[in-house]
From TrEMBL:
This is Cytochrome oxidase complex assembly protein 1. InterPro entries: Coa1. The chain crosses the membrane at residues 23-49. It comes from the Bacteria. Keywords: Membrane, Transmembrane, Transmembrane helix. The lineage of its organism: Bacteria, Pseudomonadati, Verrucomicrobiota, Opitutia, Opitutales. GO terms for biological process: mitochondrial respiratory chain complex I assembly. It comes from Rariglobus hedericola. It holds the Pfam family Coa1.
Length: 153
């Protein structure tokens, strides 16, 4: 008589591959990387806008205006965020910006409209509205800045 064959030894348990072993930290790491990439992209765009000639020219005109320095205080700096748009087409362009500005006395918002022709920005409107008194400082004409009365509400 024949003896029955011996049973096969049990299979060793399947070893987990790298993906299975690291899944718990891999998914949060991918999500965190995506969030950081979006934030980095946003700050890069913010830096591009803030380094534009239109933005820098308007901010320089505000920072060097004696009327703005008297109203806002010195030094005048910009806030982190701003709104607006800059459109460029070769050597022509248009900018419509709202820049938050602050000094050691007051804060305000600068409303800037500028056009670019032949590579040069020409500011058609730079008006700083102070937050605490609603006074308007018109810096559109660099020779004659005007301090207007508070806005009517």
């Amino acid at each position: 008589m024949q003896t029955p064959p011996l049973p096969l030894p049990p299979r060793p348990p399947r070893q987990k591959d790298w993906f299975d072993r690291n899944l718990l930290w891999l998914i949060p790491a991918i999500i965190l990387f995506g969030i950081l990439a979006l934030c980095g992209f946003g700050f890069m765009l913010l830096g591009l806008f803030k380094s534009s000639d239109a933005y820098q020219g308007a901010l320089t005109r505000i920072q060097t205006s004696p009327t703005a320095i008297e109203a806002l205080g010195s030094p005048i700096t910009d806030n982190l965020l701003f709104t607006g748009s800059i459109h460029l087409n070769n050597s022509a362009g248009h900018a419509d910006l709202q820049i938050g500005v602050k000094g050691n006395r007051s804060k305000g918002t600068a409303y800037v409209i500028a056009d670019r022709s032949r590579g040069q920005w020409h500011f058609t409107q730079i008006i700083v509205v102070l937050h605490d008194s609603d006074q308007r400082i018109d810096l559109s004409d660099p020779e004659k800045p005007k301090l207007d009365q508070p806005l009517e509400r």
